[in-house]
Amino acid sequence: GQQLNQSPQSMFIQEGEDVSMNCTSSSIFNTWLWYKQDPGEGPVLLIALYKAGELTSNGRLTAQFGITRKDSFLNISASIPSDVGIYFCAGQDNNDMRFGAGTRLTVKP
Amino acid sequence: DAGITQSPRHKVTETGTPVTLRCHQTENHRYMYWYRQDPGHGLRLIHYSYGVKDTDKGEVSDGYSVSRSKTEDFLLTLESATSSQTSVYFCAISEEAGLKRPQYFGPGTRLLVL
């Protein structure tokens, strides 16, 4: 089955910098989700997007559901050390959910 | 946090042995899922359940079976473990399928097949 194309694969940034990552698909999804995974833990839901064009914020995180329904991006503003982890996008269409391979974020103090 | 536990959290086994992983939820959610996570592949669906005794295959179901005899428990069985099944296994739950029903994940089980 097709997974989503998530980029970049990894990012090394300085504390305080903004971060942007995105996810694309050749298929349309009705829902886009962003998860964060800390080492040794399961993915935790950060933001859920349900409508094309929707822009949603959760604290310093902002995500958008692409107008074509084939992409989404996640921005993190003013990064802090606890933002370190792997960020996964997921596209959902009814009971079919596909994941990106993840963006590994490292934040240098 | 969603009330999802997985057991065991870590397991080492030998090729050819049967292995059962357990997922337990306290949310009374209808849907439960088993995923495996491997480097470079993200999360891939193995099997899912849409109710007691109702299950269906996912993307990578070969070599795995599941059972759900109670709403709160979803078991994943490797009948005869192989080294290619070394992975981290995650259980997830959702209230229903479809719009505005995101999946919530358990803490994972790390399985090493020697």
Structural features, described:
The complex is a heterodimer of chains A (109) and B (114). Chain A is mainly beta. Helix content of chain A is 0%, strand content 56%. Chain A has no helices and eleven strands. In chain A, the strands form two sheets. In chain A, strands 2, 4, 5, 9, 10 and 11 form a six-stranded mixed sheet that branches. A five-stranded antiparallel sheet of chain A has the order 1-3-8-7-6, with no helix packed on it. In chain A, a hairpin with a 5-residue loop joins strand 7 and strand 8. In chain B, 0% of the residues lie in helices and 57% in strands. In chain B, strand 5 and strand 6 form a beta hairpin. The N and C termini of chain B lie far apart (34 Å). Chains A and B meet through strand 4, strand 5 and strand 9 of A and strand 5 and strand 10 of B.
Helix and strand arrangement:
The complex is a heterodimer of chains A (109) and B (114).
Chain A: E1 5-7, E2 10-14, E3 19-24, E4 31-37, E5 44-49, E6 55-58, E7 61-65, E8 71-76, E9 85-93, E10 96-99, E11 103-108
Parallel strand pairs in A: 2-11
Antiparallel strand pairs in A: 1-3, 3-8, 4-5, 4-9, 6-7, 7-8, 9-10, 9-11
Chain B: E1 4-7, E2 10-13, E3 19-25, E4 31-38, E5 42-51, E6 54-57, E7 64-70, E8 73-78, E9 87-94, E10 104-105, E11 109-113
Parallel strand pairs in B: 2-11
Antiparallel strand pairs in B: 1-3, 3-8, 4-5, 4-9, 5-6, 7-8, 9-10, 9-11
Question: What descriptive keywords fit this protein?
Answer:
heterodimer, A: 109 residues, mainly beta, 6-stranded mixed beta sheet, 11 strands, B: 114 residues, 7-stranded mixed beta sheet, 4-stranded antiparallel beta sheet
Instruction: Report the count of strand segments of chain A.
Output: 11
Task: Provide the succession of SSEs of chain B.
Answer: EEEEEEEEEEE
Largest interface by Cβ-Cβ < 8 Å: A-B, 26 and 24 residues
N-to-C series of helices and strands of chain A: EEEEEEEEEEE
- Strand residue content of chain A: over 45%
Provide the structure class of chain A: mainly beta
Main sheet of chain A, how many strands, which sense, barrel?
Answer: 6 strands, mixed
| Cα end-to-end separation of chain A | 39 Å
- How would you sum up the global shape of chain A? globular
Count of helical stretches of chain B: 0
Write down the oligomeric state. Answer: heterodimer
Helix content of chain A: under 10%
Largest sheet of chain B: 7 strands, mixed
Structural class of chain B: mainly beta
Q: Round the mean pLDDT of chain B to the nearest integer and report it.
A: 93
Low-confidence sequence ranges of chain B:
none
Helix content of chain B: under 10%
